[in-house]
Structures are given as structure tokens and as C-alpha cells.
Input
Amino acid sequence: MQPPVDRLDTSLQRVDDAGSCGRPSTGPRQAVARGHHERVRVGSIELIPLSDGIAKLPQDFYVNLDFARHPELVAGDGLVHIPLGCFVLRSGERTALVDAGAGPRTERTPSWAEGGELPGALAAAGISAAEIDIVVVTHLHSDHVGWLAPPPAPDGETAHRLGGAHQPFFGNATVRYGAADWPEFVIKRAADDPTRLAMEALARAGRLHPLEGDTVAILPGVTARHTPGHTPGHYAIVLASGTARALLLGDAVECPLQLEEPDLYAMSDVDPALARRTREALWRELEGSDALVGAAHFPGLQFGRVLTAQGRRWFA
Ligand SMILES: [Zn+2]
Output
């Protein structure tokens, strides 16, 4: 039986032993998650966290974070390790994937991204790539689009099979992304930029269906909501079924510590001031509610709630 939404299985907190950004202020020490995790039920919607691997980031990626006060965030190599999170959603007969990881490791993969694990995590969860009807990417940063249409394998075998070009990895999926990200992450990029090549391959294959407007229906009970700032076209995903509710925040929030330390932001925020306003609006909506909250890079891909008391907010 799946854990009900109001009794989230604490095994979601099991993970490796390194530090990781923004662990909740309560609960066991936990960190980067690999592979797949406990399924969660949000009413009739099934939510399955998966990881494509880990990102290893320098401390100065986090602006206004005092690591002397948070030594637990730093791994033994001096870097901050965070999961490359993805989430499978099942609603009725339909299956969606939220975010597509960093993709297979190639000579173009940035050194900070140790991805490549999503296909194995899907298989371990009993999900085939062909079952995915829709892939929603919260935004077009490279650690969220990697498996959409990856490059040919370096050994030439896959390259031959695929005709040497980027090809859709999810053979039956429509790909949804924020239209406002297209100029920044496709048009303005070099002709050989991996994200540009992938998105252009999907466009040629007729797979793209951009998201526009404040809210867009994705599946029954699943809605994308425009949450700009991290990128112009960033969307969070809202799940609602019966009285149960959950939000997948993508990178609108990089780590739970941002709840307690609003000056903290990631270098990757395209518009830090707008990103901060978006976070504040999210916190106001979520504080004290029963909504389950997760994000692409939260430690252990674990879910929590936004709690508030005596003027303080925190994630637990
Ligand atoms: Zn990210």
C-alpha cells in the first residue's frame, strides 16, 4: 500500500552520507539521493521521485550562504552535493515526467554534473521510457533537459542507429516547457549548444508544446504554474486530488534553507530579485498548509511542509 499523503514514509529521508544544501532544520542527517525513492500518493495521483545523479557545486554558487554556520552542507571534497531530481507522475491512465536530468555523460557534459542515471532509475521503478506521455521541464537549464533528446553515444553504436543526430529519448512523449525560456536558452545559444540541439531536434520531430500563461493543465489534477525569476519561463508543478495537494518547485527554490534565509540565492537565478519575490509568494501560500513540497535539488528528494511559528518559517 502506498503511504498516504498525511503519513509520508520517513524512508524518503534515506540517502548517502555526504552533506547537501539546505537540509531541513529538523530530522535525520541526510543528503544526496541516487536512484529511485519511495512513491508518494497525492490523492489519486502517484508521485515517484527519481534521480539522474548528483551535481557537485562550488560553495560560491550559493550567494549569501555562510558555510561556517552550515558546515553540514559541504561534502568531504569541499563541494556542495545536490541530487539531479526528476519526478514521475501517474494520473489516471496517463504518465508524466517532470524534468529530465543532466543526460548521458559526454565530453560536453559540464564537470559539475554527474548525471546519466535516469534510465536506470526509471527501470528500477518499473517504468519504461515509452510509457511517458508527457515530459514537463520546469525550465531549460542543462540539468533539467538532458534526457529530452540526448546526443549520440560516443562509441558510435547509438550514433549509427540514430543517424548521428539528437533524437527524442521518450519515444511517445510530448515535451512541455516555458515558452519564455526559448529566446535565452535556444535562440541566443551557440549552434552546437547541447540544449539548443536537443530542443531543435524535438521541434523537428513535432514534439514541443510550449507552456504560456499563469497556469496550464498538464494531466487530470496536475497543473503547471508560471513561477519566473530562476528563469523567465520557469514553471512549478501543482498536484491536487481530493483534499490532497503537493507542489514540485523545480528550481524556484534551490534549497530549503532559503525559507529561513531569504537573502540566500543561487548563482543560476537569471533574475534574483524576481526569483525572491516568487519564493516569497510561494511561502505565503504554503505556510501552515498541508501541501507537500518538493523540488528538483532538495536533499534526498524528500518532501516536507512549510511550517510557521513566532514569525519564523521553516521546512520539515
Ligand atoms: Zn537545476
